[in-house]
Design brief:
The complex is a heterotrimer of chains A (125), B (336) and C (429).
Chain A (H helix, E strand, L loop, with lengths): L5 H24 L6 H4 L19 H25 L5 H24 L13
Chain B lengths: L5 H32 L15 H10 L11 H6 L2 H9 L18 H22 L3 H32 L4 H6 L6 H4 L1 H14 L24 H26 L8 H4 L5 H27 L7 H34 L1
Chain C lengths: L5 H4 L6 H13 L15 E6 L11 E7 L2 E8 L7 H5 L4 H9 L6 H16 L5 H29 L4 H21 L8 E2 L2 E2 L5 H25 L3 H7 L7 H7 L3 H6 L6 H4 L20 H25 L17 H6 L1 H12 L9 E8 L2 E9 L5 E7 L1 H13 L4 H11 L3 H5 L1
Antiparallel strand pairs in C: 1-2, 2-3, 4-5, 6-7, 7-8
Helix pairs in contact in C: 4-5, 5-6, 6-7, 6-13, 6-17, 7-8, 8-13, 13-17, 16-17
Classes of the chains: A mainly alpha (125), B mainly alpha (336), C mainly alpha (429).
Chain lengths: 125, 336, 429
């Protein structure tokens, strides 16, 4: 059973080695002459204002949260899709109810404006 | 599940080699097709028809200075470009290139592909964040939001294929399409999958994470040398992998149209050659589609991407999945 | 970040005072409207867009205050391409200064030449022959098409369709070739002269213009076909950067930006110069005031330009192309080479130049591709202008940008800059 995963493990090893090899090669072959101006972050030729790795807008997190909810739905769907033909109509009906419940959640999300990014409509703007 | 044999390792080796090659070829193809669309010549100096141009590109990138922004997070900045390359390479393990020509057959192949594919977003987001540049950060955030949003319709579109295959193994998915390709049985999901494949590969019209016009390169603004080269390489590998997945899930993999009905029995070698050529041809066509779209249509705006993903594709894919589930159920139990 | 104290977070390496006052302005701009401008969650970001940015049409600088992808406030900083052209004029004779006008709005050099020459002709009372008027009109309209093609290419490229840029440039290439045959230069043509134009149209040039006029409408139709019903392009432009008519007039927007906002003002029609009163054309106007309206206005203007060129070619009269007054214009090269008087006149024109009456002043403006381009000249009776001022359309139109940007998204900035179509050489002078 698990020996089928052996090629994947080998592939993972090859991929990592390849990635590191490319990075090292460029480090070895390329010149390295840093100076302060060169290492400044790019901000259209002006002096950067503040730090970029600050807190950023909450709207991005909302998408992430909504994603998790619906991704769980998708994960549930897979094992069901493989084997639902072997069971009675009850499985089908319960899955339809489950998905529709989540769909109501999606409608709520849309109506609430959590996915609107315009200034006037958005939830947090 | 077939056991792993020596053939598997040979296939794995060739597939890995060809994927790296095809990324280089895709770069060349992109430049030539772009030139053709724009009434130019494109690269035609390095080697015959400019075929060695990708090699020259890589050599140039290797010899460039590797700049890490002083205010950035150096370790993450270095690790980030490896992730997309890693995920793109990992996908070839489970894709069947012909009858019996695959590296391994695992009973969760589809889940494996989806999982590996969604890891790619880490590279881009971390790269954007670790650069500590605002343009990079915006690009990284866009990439994260876009790629996770489009994973849902993609997952449901794939799930609706599983209904026909009844298995999460790629071999079964392809074999279920021996007569009827999924694109005929399930056209809506095919369209959704192609659109989401574009979004997952960050290609026009979904190339907002790099958006060279407003974000000046987006997540890879602060990358140079081979670190940039790896993002670049990964993008083209994702194009090739995306084309392979479109082929495998919806266009019958290595099967000719309605092959089960008319294709006669053949010897092992002949069948292998036929299968691989059919698979490669389809992949090349979709890779061409990726390039064609890139050079002809404009880019979405961020809110339009979100609107398309959440308000259009997701509901459509949900109802498509439910509808197909009901139809398949009744077909299976009461008609067939 | 705390937008109240941006100034403390930045350490300018040059022009310290100027930069600090800019960030100050960003803090204060809307204090009268938004009293609650605190940022307790610390989620706002101040982003410099330009001057070294690929999509800001040169060296335009925008300072944006972002909340996620939204622009809450925008400040404009121009002047990075200031070359002191108006001051240079004071040390040049009128004719010597004319080639400098090519370098202001370098996308429509011919219009600038015509604008400057008509202004000088107005102050010095120079008669221009009929044929020269028509040649100037043909040149101006060609340069209008050329300028609008560049706008179309870059604006559509800014939306992400990269190939479009090269397709419009193929057409511009034809116009450059025509200019090459008209005046011997492709880019900075300097063809208009005070009192006429440098030389007559050759048969070659005429044939090329005719070919272009016949072929271009089909290309324009193709451009329309590619963009008008492209859903992504349409959605990205409609309702973006709305500039209401009143606001456009208050700001002083001109040209397609004003006409896109629903005010049908075109100098060619209201105060005709050259012979625009003898040709028929429409003034394309849209009421919406958004970026799509400006797109349609410019596209239709190209149609109208073709129409004007066709009529000019039909009506093109015979005759001289430069006034035959040795005190007002250069003599022809034939005269200079083969007659003593001609050479003396040529020498005098180069040395002293044309001298408008002392104390006279005049302002004359034309409809350049970007809008109203005016030259204000004060004379002290010598061959050099005492003062020369340029009213450039890009400068006026750029002022609308701050208004338009507030409340839009980051991706819209480049499209809106494209929609306003500034040329920094024109704006900064």
């Amino acid at each position: 059973m698990f020996e089928n995963y052996l090629p994947i493990a080998i592939l993972a090893g090859v991929a990592v080695v390849l990635a590191i090899l490319l990075m090292t090669l460029s480090r070895v072959l390329g010149p390295y002459r840093p100076n302060k101006t060169k290492l400044d972050p790019y901000e259209s030729g002006m002096d950067p204002v503040g730090d970029a790795a600050n807190r950023y807008s909450i709207s991005f997190y909302l998408v992430a949260i909504a994603f998790i909810v619906f991704d769980v739905e998708v994960v549930f769907v897979y094992p069901w899709a493989v084997s639902y033909l072997d069971f009675g109509p009850g499985t089908l009906v319960s899955m339809i109810i489950f998905i529709l419940e989540l769909y109501v959640g999606l409608i709520y999300l849309i109506k609430k404006g959590a996915l609107d990014w315009d200034l006037k409509k958005g939830m947090f703007n | 599940m077939e056991p792993v044999t020596t053939t598997s390792y040979i296939v794995l080796g060739i597939a890995l080699f060809m994927l790296l090659n095809s990324a280089a070829l895709a770069v060349y193809a992109e430049r030539r097709v772009a030139a053709f669309i724009q009434n130019r010549w494109g690269p035609n100096r390095v080697g015959p028809y400019g075929l060695f141009q990708p090699i020259a590109d890589v050599v140039k990138l290797l010899l460039k200075e590797d700049v890490t922004p002083a205010r950035g997070f150096k370790t993450i900045h270095a690790i980030a470009p490896m992730i997309p390359v890693f995920t793109a390479l990992m996908t070839v393990a489970v894709i069947p290139f012909g009858d019996g020509l695959y590296a391994t057959d695992i009973n969760s192949g589809v889940l494996y592909i989806l999982a590996i594919n969604s890891l790619g977003v880490y590279g881009i987001t971390l790269g954007g964040w670790a650069s500590n540049s605002k343009y990079s950060l915006l690009g990284g955030l866009r990439a994260a939001a876009q790629m996770i949003s489009y994973e849902l319709p993609m997952g449901l579109a794939v799930a609706s294929c599983i209904l026909f295959a009844g298995s999460l193994s790629f071999i079964d998915v392809v074999n279920s399409q021996e007569v009827w390709w999924n694109v005929i049985r399930n056209p809506i999901a095919a369209v959704i999958f192609i659109v989401t494949a574009f979004a997952e590969a960050n290609r026009t019209p979904f190339d907002l994470p790099e958006a060279e016009h407003e974000l000046v390169g987006g997540y890879h603004t602060e990358y140079s040398s081979m670190k940039f080269g790896m993002f670049f390489l990964a993008e083209y590998m994702h194009v090739v992998v995306g084309s392979m997945l479109i082929t495998t899930f919806f266009f019958g993999g290595y099967h000719l149209p309605f092959a089960g009905l008319w294709l006669p029995e053949m010897g092992v070698t002949a069948k292998a050659i036929l299968d691989v050529s059919v698979f490669v041809l389809k992949t090349v066509f979709f890779a061409f589609l990726f390039i064609w779209v890139r050079w002809t249509i404009p880019r979405f705006k961020y809110n339009q991407v979100m609107k398309l993903g959440w308000k259009r594709l997701l509901p459509i894919s949900i109802f498509n999945f439910l509808g197909l589930a009901v139809i398949v159920y009744f077909w299976h139990h009461y008609i067939a | 970040m705390d937008t109240k104290h941006i100034k403390n977070d930045v350490d300018p390496k040059f022009l310290k005072k100027h930069q600090e006052s800019l960030y100050d302005a960003l803090e204060d701009k809307h204090t009268t409207v938004e009293i609650l401008d605190e940022d307790p969650l610390n989620t706002k970001m101040v982003l410099n867009m330009g001057p070294q940015h690929p999509a800001t049409h040169g060296v335009l600088r925008l300072i944006l205050q972002l909340n996620g992808e939204l622009i809450e406030k925008a400040k404009l900083d121009i002047g990075y391409l200031h070359r002191g052209i108006e001051k240079i004029a004071e040390n040049k004779t009128y004719q010597e200064f004319m080639p400098y006008t090519d370098r202001t709005d370098y996308l429509s050099p011919y219009s600038n030449n015509v604008a400057f020459c008509t202004a000088v002709e107005k102050i010095a009372n120079v008669e221009v022959p009929e044929r020269a008027h028509y040649i100037r009109m043909i040149g101006s309209e060609l340069s209008r098409i050329s300028s609008h093609l560049l706008w179309l290419g870059t604006m559509v490229q800014d939306t992400g369709a990269v190939s479009f840029f090269l397709w419009t440039f193929r057409e511009r290439e034809k116009i450059y070739d025509i200019f090459d045959h008209i005046g011997g230069h492709r880019f900075t043509i300097s063809h208009a002269r005070i009192g006429g134009v440098a030389n007559d149209l050759t048969d070659d040039a005429l044939a090329m213009i005719k070919d272009f006029v016949n072929e271009f409408p089909q290309e324009l139709k193709d451009f329309h076909g590619l963009l008008d019903r492209n859903r992504i392009f349409f959605d990205r432009n409609r309702g973006v950067g709305v500039l209401p008519t009143e606001r456009a007039l208050e700001i002083g927007a001109t040209g397609p930006t004003l006409r896109g906002s629903g005010y049908a003002y075109d100098i060619r029609d209201f105060e005709p110069y050259a012979r625009y009163d003898e040709v028929e054309f429409e003034i394309p106007t849209r009421l919406e005031g958004d970026n799509l309206a400006r797109y349609y206005v410019r596209m239709e203007e190209m149609h109208e330009s073709i129409r004007i060129i066709r009529q000019c070619l039909d009506k093109l009269p015979k005759g001289p192309v430069r006034t035959d007054n040795a005190k007002q214009a250069y003599p022809s090269k034939d005269e200079v080479y083969y007659s003593m008087e001609g050479m003396i006149h040529d020498f005098m024109m180069t040395d002293t130049g044309i001298c408008p009456p002392e104390g006279s002043e005049s302002f004359h403006s034309i409809e350049a591709p970007k809008g109203e381009l005016g030259y204000f000249i004060q004379s002290n009776g010598t061959g050099h202008p005492w003062r020369l001022g340029i009213k450039s359309p890009s400068y006026a139109n750029l002022q609308a940008l701050e208004d338009m940007l507030d409340g839009e998204m980051v991706a819209d900035t480049v499209i809106m800059i494209g929609g306003v179509d500034p040329v920094m050489g024109d704006s900064d002078k």
